[in-house]
Amino acid sequence: MAKTHVTTSINGEPQEFLCEPGDTLLDVLRNDLNMTGTKEGCGSGDCGACSVTLNGRLVCSCLVLGVEVEGAEVGTIEGVSSGDGLHVIQEKFLEHAALQCGICTPGIIVSTKALLEENPNPTEEEARYYLAGNLCRCTGYDKIIRAVMDSAETLRGGA
Amino acid sequence: MSEAQEFKYIGQRTVRPDGFDKVTGRAAYGADLTLPGMIWGKTLRSPHAHAKIRSIDISKAEAHPDVMAVATFKDFVTLQSESIAAGEGSADVLDLAKNCLADDKVLYHGHAIAAIAARTEQAAKDALSLIEVKYELLKPVMDVEDAMKEDAVVLHDDMFTAGYEEKPARASNIATRVEMKMGDVDAGFADADVIVEREFRTPTAHQGYIEPHACTVTYDEDGQSMIWCCTQGHFDVRTSTAKVLGMELSKLKVVASEIGGGFGGKTVIYQEPVALILSKKSGRPVKMVMDRDEVFIATGPTSAAKLKAKVGIKKDGTITAMQGWMAYEAGAFKGSPMMPGVMTMFTPYDCPNVLVEGFDVVVNKSKVAAYRAPGAPQAEYAAEMVINELAEKLGMDPIDLRLKNAAKEGTQTIYGPKLKKVGLVECLEAAKNSPHYQSALPEGQGRGLAAGFWFNVGGQSSVTVNMNTDGTGTIVEGSPDIGGSRASMQMMAAEVLQIEPKHLKPIIADTENLPYSQGTGGSRTTFATGMAVIEASEKVVAQVKERAAAVWNVTAEQVDYADGVVRNTAGEDSMTLAEVCKGAEKTGGQISGSANINARGAGPSFAVHICDVAVDQETGKVDVTRYTAIQDAGKAIHPGYVEGQLQGGAVQGIGWALNEEYIFNEDGVMENPGFLDYRIPLASDLPMIETIIVEVPNAFHPYGVRGVGESGIIPPLGAVGYAVGNAIDRKVEELPCSPPRVLALIQNG
């Protein structure tokens, strides 16, 4: 089957790729563009390890087809830190020891960024429900939630 | 080691050295390596739980233009039954091979039968349907009760129960029977004023790591091979893979990628030898990544178990006798963690009369793999539920009852040695004084408490510390880092070298760069690999002193080393570590220290957990409202990651107690192989997990370390189980306490 040509923007940079109709955005990111920061944990939208933003909206990239991102703005973990340093959320995850194996971490950081852009002052319960689509098997979520709440406070105070 | 050591770096909450790569997505995990010319492998798996394979026809698949290689069991070398070290125990090499690709029988839904390599992952997947397998269906045996019946269908007609004086006349599904005892339980029960005896069940549960098993491999014309994979023990992957493929160890390099969770489940091989066969046949690098449903049906899980616990007690709270019985599912091949279940069941208690009997039973489910304190959570769950019921019957505080009988230094264990210094009493006292235990239980809720014991292990670790010419260094170790252990290694080396941790870079070497190192498991890494790091660093300090002594023309004994500076005690001279390293060229060559050890003296870690729950009386849904985990770390090298182990273990245990279970249909097919239906805890399910780190130093480690990774998964089953029963005024016996099961208890009494 002929591949489809897609023109899109990833982390603010123009990008073109060819993909099969059945390829997911996750497949394209990982296998065609070699952006392996976005992880696959389930391929069925249950674990959130492949979280990215699509036109600012948080999605599981395993549930989006590559051809669907034509003309869209895609945001991945690779775009969270700027060239000159880590994003506050990334710093807080390190400071709070909010990761163990780290496989869920890119997805959780992308989700946290989306949460705090939507709601800069979440309650603990709001943070827990927003991140309910991001599974972590190592931490029991305690330190993740602390890092999220601390990030929110720092971002409110700083920027 | 001395009782109260002063530390310069140990005990701080440093930023882990691998953290930057992990929060930016740069860290490379099992599925993240792509090689030039690489193709993809996929596995054909059995749709049946139990069947004879009449024939496998791969000719159509081989003829397909997209297919570059096909592998079946016939591609393994001819193997003899032989026990080899694998994961956290031993395995029969023939069983290992038959689990990687089925021989003449499929033994569980999901059992690998053949694999195909093709240009793309999708092409490999599509081509699987071209393989024709003819089966003769057999009746599946799905639990220990059926498997242990006299007239049970037998999985392996050459398996005769070990553990009896005479070899049984007939083959059976019981691989092994074990009995351990001390004292006289009959006399002990005769002395008791109150006896409680109950029967329990725990489900088949999965480790649930988020990263699926993955590998990328190459095989060249010279037979030189490389495996890149996510594993807890790359040296063990090399041993097992080389064995089933008949290779020399020097021909096979295994590189441990970053690993996305393991919990014991990534200690055995599945796809690795199959991918190498495909690579050899195709002449191309091959990547294999499991889908999530493959992870559920064909890897892990831990044993479902049936257990009985009987405990006798005097009115004053003295335990007089303890008796246990357990049957653990091994899955398709022998080797459940029944033995550690037998050994740990009653170890938190100092009782002279104990008898425990255990059975290792094969059933038509995937072969179990180690899962965090393998075998202990099930056995100790049964014991802790009965202890709590006895406390309630006597009207005694459950902590006081445990304190009265607590195992301590000198307590005789059922498995042989007496305990060295341990921290159970200190954990119980910390629990009693905790804000949680001191708080009143909210109206309508239930509270439960349980203790947990795990041995911890030591074992072989190899480490080299290489100093650079600017006084910084590299710590080369062989223990894959699952939860932040590189931070601990960095801090321990820094403590010896007396320089800031950030100047030392820890790396996980591949199998060609270090001698054998055991995998990360048994809570051994911070203890055993840490000991090797300390020893290697001490060798560096000794060399630094010798070099300085040579420069100053004094003896090494006349040189002091502190705060990264050598000083001549016989004069005024001093040099920094960096200056000594810079001058190493002229004083005898570069400076490094190696330690290849077999660490003994792992100190057991006891844990005590407290759990409050609220139960929805209409739906049976249980919410954990407050939870506290208390555990003896010996010495917490990095308190943040120690707390993380306590919290992570607690939450895995909460999941096991409340929701997680494999659901099979009548044909033995797993019906919930995904995270939607096999429900591990979510952020929204939980409260903060309060932690209290108790530090009773382990005399066998220079800094007092005890492993902390595993004990934390043991108490939740009893603490949550008892809290649920307490909330609904019923006796909980079967886990998980999922809504339908709790609702049935509420409605039926």
Structure explained in plain terms:
- The complex is a heterodimer of chains A (159) and B (749).
- Chain A has 159 residues and is α+β, with helices and mostly antiparallel strands.
- Chain A folds into two domains: 4-79, Beta-grasp domain (Ubiquitin-like (UB roll)), CATH 3.10.20; 88-158, [2Fe-2S]-binding domain (DNA polymerase, domain 1).
- Chain A is 34% helix and 16% strand.
- Chain A has helices at 25-32, 88-95, 105-118, 124-130, 142-158, and strands at 4-10, 13-19, 51-54, 57-60, 73-75.
- Chain A has a five-stranded mixed sheet, sandwiched between helices.
- Chain A starts with a strand and ends with a helix.
- Chain B is of the alpha+beta class.
- Among the domains of chain B are: 19-26 and 458-599, Aldehyde Oxidoreductase, domain 4 (2-Layer Sandwich); 305-415 and 423-453 and 605-748, Aldehyde Oxidoreductase, domain 4 (2-Layer Sandwich), CATH 3.30.365.10.
- In chain B, strands 3-7-1-14-11-12-13 form a seven-stranded mixed sheet. Chain B has a five-stranded mixed sheet with strand order 9-17-16-15-10, with helices on both faces. In chain B, strands 18-26-27-28 form a four-stranded mixed sheet, with helices on both faces.
- In chain B, a hairpin with a 5-residue loop joins β19 and β20.
- In chain B, α15 (485-497) packs parallel to α16.
- Chain B is globular.
- Chain B starts with 18 loop residues before the first helix and ends with a helix.
- The model of chain B has no long low-confidence stretch (mean pLDDT 97).
- The chains are: A alpha+beta (159), B alpha+beta (749).
- At the A-B interface, α2, α3, α4 and α5 of A face α1 and α19 of B.
